[in-house]
Amino acid sequence: MLAATVVVFTAAFGFLNGFRDASAAIGLTVRTRALAPSIAAALATLFNVAGAVTSAWLLAYFGGFWLTTPEGSGGLIMLLATLASAILWNTYAWWLGYPSSSTHALVGGLVGSSAAAGLVGHEGVAQLDRVFWVQVGLPLLLSPLLAFGAAFFLTAGVTWAVRYAQPSHAHAGLRAAQSVGTSAVAFAHGLQDGQRIIAVLMIAALGSGADYTSIPAWTTAFAAAVLGAGTLAGGWRITYTLSHRLVRVDPLRGFVSQLVTSGMLFFGALGLHWPLSTTHTVVSSVLGAGSNQDYAAVNGRLVIRLVRFWLVTPLTTAALGAIFALALSPLG
């Protein structure tokens, strides 16, 4: 019964993940009119699903995963509390129209539920401090700075490269490139976040001792389906924030942001094996590209609110995870 409930909550988390993070792939493309909203959403869905399927190969190739829980009902309760806290916080973020990291919400919930398990005398997650700093602390601090800096300087380079082109011709070519950028960002998002959904499903079905070198086909299909369904539905509140409220963006800066985002996500997944946040990366890169202009293009007040929201995300979900874990502890 607990395992089935975890699978249901995993479906909700995966759907909400695609629903909210669709904006990362399609927001800038729709804003610059490179693609119509419906076409952009369909394209992002297709490549998000492809990325999620490929993420199963990535898990099997590297083996193992950072998300672990104790065996038995105690581990399932911990996982259920983690998912519930992430779902609740992500829904609140969507309602506000704030782009935030689903991964950081998930890890924060895991930290809180593990701490609560220790309070009631149950086994928690081993090496929890390492999980928090490697999976949340370092990416939270480094990836936005790297994305901002790379986009800022790359904008100058792309501007120099098209300096002799007519603006209409340059924008037409950059809009076409943005269509490719949408596909790349969506694929990279599926590659990153598909791993989390598959790992949760395997823990629910097989326990924390699951062998990631042999991933059941149903977990891959399930993860791809819920992530794709959420992307197709599209969280337009966050898309509006990213493409209209946050920064004034043109095709050149939209292309630069997508190039930096997809590059960092691919490198994070394949090179560093880090769960980089698609949301943090795309927001930081578009801010970097938008800041490299002669006029004020960035909504500074909104940026401050977003950064504050990012910082409190793992703390709040940790508190929620602890509360849910304590409430569910009698079931163990």
Characterise this structure:
The chain contains eleven helices and no strands. By secondary structure, the chain is an all-alpha fold. Helix 1 packs parallel to helix 3 (73-96), helix 2 packs across helix 6 and helix 9 packs antiparallel against helix 10. The longest helix is centred in the middle third of the chain and has 40 residues, at 167-206. The chain starts with a helix and ends with a helix. The mean pLDDT is 81.
Helix content: over 70%
**Helix/strand order, N-terminal first:** HHHHHHHHHHH
The low-pLDDT segments are none
User: What is the total number of structural domains?
Assistant: 1
Number of strands: 0
**Main β sheet profile:** none
Number of helices: 11
Q: Ends: how far apart?
A: 12 Å
Secondary structural class: mainly alpha
Shape: globular
